[in-house]
Amino acid sequence: MLDLLWILPLSFFISFAICIFLLPYYIKKARAVDMVGIDVHKLNKPKIAESGGIILMLAYLLGLFIFIPFLYEPSTNIYTEEMIKIIGTAATVLFSTFIGLIDDIYEIRWRIKALTPMLGGVPLAVLSLSVPIFSTPFGDFNFEAVLGVFGLVLFFAFVVPFIVTACANAVNMLAGLNGLEAGSTLIIASALTLLSILRNKNEGLIILIPFIGALIAFLYYNKYPSRVFPGDVGTFGMGAVIACVAMLADFERAVFVMFLPYTINAMLFFIGKLRGKAPPRVAPMNPDGTIPCPTKWSLRCLILQIHPMKEKTLTYVMWAIVAVFAIIGLFVYG
Fold it and tell me: Which of 48, 53, 104, 174 could form a disulfide with 230 if both were Cys (CB 3.0 to 4.6 A apart)?
């Protein structure tokens, strides 16, 4: 761990610098080729650069890869376990962001989009072959010890991919306000970083530190009023990183608690969808600038039914809710 201490700030700086430097050029180019989306929560409906998550995840991966040269053991001619986990994390994030990019371009139907990120869980499943143990709110569950060979198949063929798709879709479904998804993910990533320090989890720090650097830079352009949206390529990538930390650093229980606001939001959405009352993709702004609440089938709509709010205030409230559960997740771990 001591050998990696000086590399952690370097990876943070690389991710931050690349993201903060490239995003203005990306925003300009996206506008030039009309890769834009309408900011429906502004009265003047401005056009905002879309799919900026490409730069976010690129910056993150470059910051993550800086660890690889320092994790090689020349005496044994092999790479360390942390390096293998870096490669698996990168593969999972690349799979997930690619699926998100395809959705940004072709607008995949939600039934298909809900399952396709499971493909991103394949590299993570391979990495976890030696530890088929899942940390639940009720204790650790050893799939191999309890279910034998069937447990191994169940764990690697379903549980691990499901965690990836659940995290990716949960972040994606919470999106919709300037800075909401990036800010919420930053809060959770920061809490998990603290947990990694407290539990001496090297892999958690290696995965999260460059991610936080890239997120801070991205949030600078994504916060209210947004100059760039992450798109599904960004939200899927954010969720995939959190899934990797949960599995590789054994933080499943903590992430389960931290993601409760996302889970509640997703459950409300699917219930509304089944009842034919899911929140519409676009709703006209209220004349006073507050966010419309045409249904009650999302966490955002539940909050708005308590008190009407403008976008910036609503984002802060939702960040606060995520922060509360992030703190609770810190306490319930272990």
Answer: 53
